[in-house]
Amino acid sequence: MLQKAAVAKQKAFAGDEYTDFNLTFSLEDSFSVELKLCEKWVKKWQKRTEMNLPPLIFHEI
Question: For the chain, which residues make up each domain, given as ranges?
Answer without folding.
Answer: 1-30, 34-61
